[in-house]
User: Fold this.
Amino acid sequence: MDKDEKGRKAKGKEELPKARISSGIIGLDEVIEGGLRDHAVTIILGASGTGKSTLAMQYILEGLDRGEQGLYITLDVKPEQLIKESILWGWDRLQQHIDKELFFFETTGSDFKAIIEDQLPRLVEARKKYETPTRIAIDPLTPIIWAEKDKSVQRELINKLFVMMKEIGTVVATVEEHGQSTGEDGLGASIPIFLSDSAIHLRYQPIGGAFNRTLEIVKMRGTRHGEEVSL
Ligand SMILES: Nc1ncnc2c1ncn2[C@@H]1O[C@H](COP(=O)(O)OP(=O)(O)OP(=O)(O)O)[C@@H](O)[C@H]1O
Ligand SMILES: [Mg+2]
Assistant:
C-alpha cells in the first residue's frame, strides 16, 4: 500500500481505481472496467490451441500501437514461430518493432532457477531506466511448473518471477491446461493463479454443432467484472 493509498483508506474514502491497460482484445476491456490493471500479472489459462499465444501477442501489439514497449519471454517456443503466426494474422507491422520496441527473451535449457534468479534480474535491472510503459508476455509459464516438482520451490520461483516482472511492466503469463489442471492434481495451474492478480480462462469447444471460442474471467483483483465473452 503506498502513502496515497493509506491516506485514502485513513480518510475512509473509496479507493480510486488503478490505471488500466487496454488489453487489445475485443470485448475484454468492457467487462473488466476498462482493461488490465497496471503493473499486475494476468494468467491466461487454456488447453493447447485455445489461443493463449495469440492473445499474448495481441496484447503486446496493442502496446506497440500505443507507443509502448514489449518484452516477450518465451520458455520453449521459438520467437520465429510466434512472429510467423502473427504475420498469418496480418500483424506484419510487428516486424518493424523487433529489437527497437519489442524484445524477445528466449530461454534455452530448463534451469529455471538460474533464469529467474540470475538472468532475468539482470535484464530487469537494465530495463529499469526506461520510462516508456512496458508490456510483458511470459509464454508459456508451464515449463517452470513441470520442471519443479517441489510445490514450495515452484511457488517461490513463480512468485519471484512475478514480483520482479511487475516492477518493470504489466504482465500476461500463459499456462497450459491439461485435463483438470486447475485442481490439485499435481499438473496444476493453481499456484500461478493464486499468485496472480487476475486470471482468464480460454476455451475452444463445440457448442450446438459449431466450435466456439470463449473467454471467462476467473479472477480479477479490485475489479467488478463480467464473466464470459465470446471471441
Ligand atoms: N480468437 C481466435 N479466433 C480464431 N482463431 C484463433 C483465435 N486465437 C487463436 N486462433 C488460432 O488457433 C490456433 C492456436 O492458437 P495459439 O497458438 O494462440 O494457441 P495456444 O493456446 O498458444 O496453443 P499452445 O498451448 O499449443 O501454445 C492458431 O492457429 C491461431 O491462429
Ligand atoms: Mg502457445
